[in-house]
Amino acid sequence: MAYSVTMLAWGAIEFNKEITDLNQMGHALWAIKWGTDYFIKAHTQPNVLWGQVGDGVSDHYCWERAEDMTTSRGAYKIDEQHPGSDLAGETAAALAAAAIAFRPYNSSYSNLLLVHAKQLFTFADRFRGLYDNSISSAQQFYTSSGYSDELLWAATWLHLATGNEYYIKYVVDNAVYMGGTGWAVKEFSWDNKYAGVQILLSKVLLEGKAGAYSATLKQYQAKAEYFTCACLQKNDDYNVQKTPGGLLYVREWNNMQYVSSAAFLLAVYSNYLSATKSQLNCPDGQTQPQELLNFVKSQADYILGKNPADVSYLVGYGAKYPLHVHHRGASIASVFALHYDVGCTQGFEMWYNRAEPNPNVICGGLVGGPDKNDDFSDERSNYEQTEPTISGSAPLVGIFAKLQSLYGNIGEGYNHNESPVPQQKTPSTNPGKTTMSKTSSESEGAPVEFLHSISSSWTVGGATYYHHRVIIKNTSSKPISDLKLVIKDLSGSLWGLSPTEEKDTYELPQWNKVLNPGSECIFVYVQGGPQATVSIKSLH
After folding, report:
1. Which of 240, 272, 304 is the last residue of a domain?
2. Is there a single domain that holds both residue 88 and residue 4?
3. Torsion sign over Cα 52, 54, 57, 61
4. How would you class 308 by CB atoms within 10 Å of its CB: exposed for 0-12, middle for 13-18, buried for 19 or more?
5. Same domain, 358 and 271
6. Over the stretch 471-499, which tens digit does the pLDDT of each residue have?
7. Are 458 and 488 a contacting pair, CB within 8 Å?
8. Cα–Cα distance between 176 and 280 in angstroms, integer?
9. pLDDT, tens digit, 9 for 90 and up, residues 357-412
10. Which residues form the Carbohydrate binding domain (predicted)?
């Protein structure tokens, strides 16, 4: 979680103009603040950080919505007697990066973030140890490979946030001992920050701000370029593996998080090189900054559907994306549609093993993705490939903003003027924000009323798209079952109804087959142009 906030903040810093031009900076800062507010609450004393809520074993034993959870919510902390330098260090990095992101917009909040960041770094450095030795229940799920990289990472961000020489001296003095100039890596992730440290310190060097520390920072830069060249396949055969379709392949389990993080670093390093009119020197030849961006675009295009499987691995985007995402909330009907608790094991019986697609679309979730041969199996039980992670999605914000600024609206886009409205949210009654229309099908012999509303809109490449919300209401005194609707002129994605084998024909989802008198069912769709035409085909 802390790493994801760091990456969101880095994106807001590095691609500030691009995100602002897309009218997305407010949303980006809101997402960052959602995380940093939590970290502030969890940092109850200078040397105390609450690091985990719940137990992984009992949580994995259940398949249930967050609203229904009955498993232990016990909380676990790190402190002086039970240290966690990796966890405290990453949280310090997140708060320091967020302080930079917020500084132009909310200086008092930025200052508060820095107070906590400094305290957490001091705590991480003075009381050293692995967090999963202190929070032992994390070992089975998020084992830490070490804490030296997080200490360097936090110190680097604090240097950039404060300008205090103490922090740059720290990364220089500990460069060898902590592996900053020794580790040449091929991955950047929530557990391994070395490549991020090396790229960030290269910025200090390239901008001519290294001063007396330039010799050591050049060693950091050499390792940054090792990582970059390895991604570009120009590292004298010491390269990151790629699939036949061109995707970076680092690990079997949730590989996409390593793809998005690597693409982010190369987008950032391309910026650094361009700003200082520099080139990348790889063993296989000199490389211009544009080649790094070409690589970034190739990985983003693969994620969004330009791949051998013709699948978008970003859920909710494109014509074809994973429908059986390994995610509890996505795979179980919403509390607005299913008004009773789903028990711990009942979730497995009723929802986990269903062959049907998930009832909810977890828009923006980046799933684990294909294997080393570009093969992908869209199955809920295939968690290595279908589980989404915030660590995978977080770097995408900066990547997409950068690519949008360079290449414009190629295919679909995300240039929203408003945030998408949650699918099950009660419709607004504010006429300034929601447009509503009502139609009745009683003239066709069906006592059903449709309430159609437009809850938000956005513009992409000159075309306006609308988020439509339709309430189906039984206005009769009898239950209605097996309702089938014909939806014409539908050009976008639709959620909340199940498609049938008949063209343009949809039915109520399995968990809501009967509409009782006065009850409602909701579906939503997104498209440009006029609204779709909804009519009843049959009912009982």
Report:
1. 304
2. yes
3. negative
4. middle
5. no
6. 898 888 888 888 889 999 887 777 778 77
7. no
8. 24
9. 999 999 999 999 999 999 999 999 999 999 999 999 999 999 999 999 999 864 44
10. 448-528
Give the contacts of 441 (CB within 8 A, at least 6 positions apart).
447, 448, 449, 450, 535, 536
403 located within any domain: no
The chain-wide mean pLDDT, for the chain, equals: 90
> Do 336 and 277 fall into the same domain?
no
Torsion-angle region of residue 160: left (phi > 0), alpha (psi -120 to 50) or beta? alpha
Provide the whole-model pTM: 0.78
Residues 9 and 145 in one domain: yes
Beta bridge partners of 75: 53
- Measured distance CA(160)–CA(157) in Å, rounded: 5
Residue 5 pLDDT exceeds 90:
yes
Q: Which domain holds residue 279?
A: 177-304
Buried b (16+ CB within 10 A) or exposed e, 156-189: bbbbbbbeeeebbebbbebbeebbbbebbbbbbb
How far apart are the C-alpha atoms of 480 and 441, rounded to whole Å?
Answer: 13
Per DSSP bridges, beta strands 480-481 and 514-515 are antiparallel
Q: Residue 59: inside a domain, yes or no?
A: no
Q: What is the CATH number of the domain that holds 467?
A: 2.60.40.290
- 232's CB contacts (< 8 A; 6+ apart) are 239, 266, 282, 287, 291, 292, 295
What average pLDDT does this structure show over 407-428? 40
Whether 326 is catalytic is yes
192-250 residue pLDDT tens: 999 999 999 999 999 999 999 999 999 999 999 999 999 999 999 999 999 999 999 99
* CA–CA separation, 356 and 323 (whole Å): 8
Alpha-carbon gap, residue 415 to 405, rounded angstroms: 11
Find, among 365, 382, 370, the residue nearest to 246 by Cα: 370
Structure tokens at 397: 């914000």
Which DSSP helix (H) or strand (E) runs through 264?
helix 256-275
Share of the chain above pLDDT 70, in %: 91
- The count of domains in the chain is 4
472 closest CA partner among 429, 418, 419, 512? 512
Find the helix or strand (DSSP H, E) in which 265 lies.
helix 256-275
Residue 362 sits in the same domain as residue 290: no
Do 189 and 164 share a domain, yes or no?
A: no
Q: Which residues contact 304 (CB under 8 A, 6 or more apart)?
A: 312, 313, 314, 317, 318, 411
Judgement on whether residues 119 and 222 belong to the same structural domain of the protein: no
Using the 3D structure, point to which of 130, 153, 174 is the last residue of a domain: 174
Residues 336 and 281 in one domain: no
Set 43, 326, 327, 416: catalytic member: 326
